[in-house]
Amino acid sequence: MSKIKNTRRDFLRKAAGVGIGIAALGKNSFGGETFSPGKITSEKFILPMLPYSYDALEPQIDKMTMEIHHSKHHQTYVNNLNKALAADISGVSIEELCKNSSNYSPAVRNNGGGHYNHSMFWGSMKPNGGTVPGSSSNLPNENFSAAINSAFTTFEEFKNKFSDAAKNRLGSGWTWLVVNTDKKLEIGSTQNQDNPLMDVSEFKGTPVLCLDVWEHAYYLKYQNKRADYISAWWNVVNWEEANKRFANAMK
Ligand code: MN3
């Protein structure tokens, strides 16, 4: 009995070690083992696979929106990013590219942001996510909860503030929960495909969660009702992923 237990513990330790190894190597900031943002080859960026099927987030996010959003919109950002960079990208991670966005052309800024943001967005969601009854394992963990309460008083206040930022984003853009340079959680938004990693962005930090509020993210199902899309989105949030991103950002 105890032997089985120990074996299981060894396995968990090894599995955790792999996760830490990935983070320490700086391969990506998308949470490590549960989601890959798309491997960066020496030649070009590629579209990451979704970690679930196109219909997996129904009814909150409909299948057709997911399919078009991922296979058309995100793919186009990747294609145009590769085109804009031409041959000059070997060894540059998408994070480094964003951090130095002022050194690149507007096409690289827009399409690089589009690639990073969507990769982060797909991992911010999961089927049966959210904080609904029955999903007790998918919740902000102790450290993350403490940081949320410290920054926003309560979890409900945090949700309200994030939702308001998403509703009030004028035109196309993104809403973010980040760890800022003071190691505090902060909510903000960016225009177009900018993100908080970018040196050109006024709002800066390490992303933990993001929400796409471009119309293409919700128009087929929600039309002009962005607020309904935002409130539905809370039911598919991947808190396990957010826990990992938060822990990585606090290192
Ligand atoms: Mn989008």
Main structural class: mainly alpha
- CA radius of gyration is 18 Å
> Helix coverage percent of residues?
40-55%
Helix-strand sequence: HHHHHHEEEHHH
Which regions contain 5 or more consecutive residues with pLDDT less than 50? 1-42
| Count, helices | 9
Please write the CATH class name of the largest domain: Mainly Alpha
At CATH level 3, the topology of the largest domain is: Helix Hairpins
Portion in strands: 5-15%
What small molecules does the structure contain? manganese (III) ion
Number of strands: 3
> What sort of overall outline do the alpha carbons produce when their principal axes are compared?
globular
CATH architecture of the largest domain: Orthogonal Bundle
Please give the order of strands in the largest beta sheet: 2-1-3
Kindly report how far apart the N and C termini lie: 37 Å
pLDDT averaged over residues: 83
For this structure, what is the CATH homologous superfamily of the largest domain?
Answer: Fe,Mn superoxide dismutase (SOD) domain
Count of individual domains: 2
Biggest sheet details = 3 strands, antiparallel
Explain what you see.
- This protein is mainly α and 251 residues long.
- The protein has 2 domains: 2-123, Helix Hairpins, CATH 1.10.287.990; 136-249, Iron/manganese superoxide dismutase, C-terminal domain (minor pseudopilin epsh fold), CATH 3.55.40.
- The chain contains 9 helices and 3 strands; from the N terminus they run ααααααβββααα.
- Helix 5 crosses helix 6.
- The longest helix is centred in the first third of the chain and has 23 residues, at 2-24.
- The structure holds manganese (III) ion (MN3).
- Residues 69, 73, 118, 212, 214, 216-217 line the site of manganese (III) ion.
